[in-house]
Amino acid sequence: MVLFFLMICSGFRITGQNSRDLQQQYQLQIKRSAEAIRIDGVLDEPAWQVADKADNFWMSFPVDDERAPKDIQTEVQFTYDDQYLYIGAICYGPDDYIIKSLKRDNLGFWEGDAFSILLDPVNERTNAFSFAVNPANVQSDALVNGQTMRRGTGNFSGINDAWDNKWFSAVQTATDRWTVELAIPFRILRYKSSQTTWGLNFARGEPRSNSWHTWSPVPVQFISMDLGYTGALVWDQPPPAVKSNISVIPYVSASSHNNVEEGEPTTTSFNAGVDAKVAVTSSLNLDLTVNPDFSQVEVDQQVTNLTTFDVLFPERRLFFLENSDLFSDFGIPPMRPFFSRRIGLDEDGNTIPIQYGLRLSGNLNKDLRIGLMNMQTKGINDQPGNNYTSLALHRQLFKRSVLRGYFHNRQGHANKSLLADDYNRTVGLEFNFVTQDGSTRAFGGYGLSFSDHVRSQDNSFYNVGAGYDNRTISVYSNLAGVGDNYYADLGFIPTQNHYDAVRDTTYHLGFNHLFSRASYTYYPENEGKIISHTWFLNHMRDWTTRASELIQNSVRGSYNISWRNTSMFLLEYNHQLNQLLYPFTFADEPLPAGKYRYNTIGASYFTDQRKLFSALFGISTGGFYNGKRQQYKLMLSYRKQPWGKFDLSFEQNNIRLPSNYGDVNLLLVGPRIEINFSNNLSWTTFLQYNTQDDNFNINSRFQWRYQPMSDIYLVYTDNYAVEYWGPKNRAVVLKMNYWLNI
Question: pTM of this prediction?
Answer without folding.
Answer: 0.89
